[in-house]
Write a structure and sequence with these properties.
By secondary structure, the chain is of the alpha+beta class. It has a single domain, classed as Alpha-Beta Complex (tt1808, chain A), CATH 3.90.1570.10. The protein has helices at about 10-15, 40-60, 110-125; strands at about 20-25, 30, 65, 70-75, 75-80, 85, 100-105, 130-135, 140-145, 150, 160-165, 170-175. Strands 3-6-7-8-9-10 form a 6-stranded mixed sheet, sandwiched between helices. Strands 1-2 form a two-stranded antiparallel sheet. A two-stranded antiparallel ribbon has the order 4-5. The protein is globular and about 55 Å long.
Length: about 180
């Protein structure tokens, strides 16, 4: 006779009552603490600055850059990307449709989850761009969604990358600027 393991299963309603920062994946809670390292936070700030500047320069009216925001995939999966770009109005306290772009900065404690679990969730949810930033290696990977699958985009850190966010919004980003 084998022992049955019972794992807790939580939903968005439970999540709303928790203190602190959490993510919920398939009903399993993940604490978002301790706080990200200073370098992690500095990179998030740089990325947000570069994207906001590019959005302003290109005169994109519908697309906005957000710091971590509750991304409700379904009742049992709520994620908080490090930053995201949303090109539609948000009418709720959370985002329940795919943002156009999400950014995750890897840390030793989240790298596996970001590269595999979240990668798969973001791909299935239909997020157009997934940008993974490796703070230890100073490397960036950009995945673009085509035919419901992510493909790694060829990038040169010394040149610009063009993001086609929506029909009216194309931005250029010099990727090396985030390390400065």
């Amino acid at each position: 006779m084998s022992a049955v393991k019972l794992l807790p299963y939580y939903t968005y309603d439970d999540y709303c009552h928790w203190e602190g920062r959490w993510e919920l994946i398939d009903g399993i809670p993940f604490a978002m603490s301790p706080a990200p390292t200073p370098r992690h936070q500095w990179l998030v700030a740089n990325i947000m600055f570069e994207f906001k500047s590019a959005l302003k320069k290109s005169n994109c009216k519908n697309c906005k850059m957000y710091d971590f925001i509750d991304l409700k995939i379904d009742e049992s999966t709520i994620l908080q990307p490090d930053s995201s770009i949303v090109c539609k109005p948000i009418t709720k306290e959370f985002l329940d449709f795919p943002p156009t772009l999400v950014v995750e900065i890897l840390s030793p404690s989240t790298a596996l989850k970001d590269r595999h679990t979240k990668f798969s969730i973001y791909e299935k949810f239909g997020i157009k761009y997934y940008m993974i930033v490796d703070e230890e290696k100073n490397e960036i990977e950009i995945y673009s969604l085509a035919n419901s699958k992510y493909s790694l985009q060829p990038i040169n850190a010394d040149s610009t990358f063009i993001f086609a966010l929506d029909d009216d919004c194309h931005i250029e980003l010099l990727l090396n600027n985030i390390w400065e």
